[in-house]
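Support request, priority: normal
Reporter: lab tech (M.K.)
Component: structure prediction queue

Hi team, I submitted a job for ImmA/IrrE family metallo-endopeptidase from Mesorhizobium argentiipisi yesterday, and the status page still shows it as pending. I've pasted the exact input below so you can check whether something in the sequence is tripping the parser. The sequence length should be 133 residues. Please let me know if I need to resubmit or if it's stuck on your end.
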Amino acid sequence: MRRPVYNELPIRCKLEGRGRWTAAHELGHLVLHKSAVPLDRAPTRYSKMKELPAYASAEWQANAFAAAFLMPEALIRDFFEISEIMTFFAVSRSAAENRVKNLGLSEQRPVPPQVRAAISNLHNRTGTPKPAR
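Reply from support: The job had stalled in the queue. We restarted it manually and it finished. Here are the results:
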């Protein structure tokens, strides 16, 4: 983890989408890349990392980890609207849209009543406006 990112995490992670994503992304690096050498200290042979296929990239892997960690597939499949995903999982619009796209969930799906009730309760507790229908 880069020192500036590490130092700013307590400030940036105030339950906002981007801060939560950054924390989950960096956690992904810690979990998935325990033996990795920080890029600023890596040998020059690692300078060709941009030539790797996406799935072999440490950044791609950390992003995939963050998406799965913050928006588990088993839960996200129950949602119908991006705004509901954003609210329920406290993620940014782009994170929610990318997760839905990457899971191939762009088609409309019914939302189970228990999920709708949980979202409604969350809106009531946090005072956030309910998404327009």
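The chain has a mean pLDDT of 75. Helices lie at 3-12, 17-32, 58-70, 73-76, 82-89, 93-102, 113-126. Let us know if anything else looks off. Ticket resolved.
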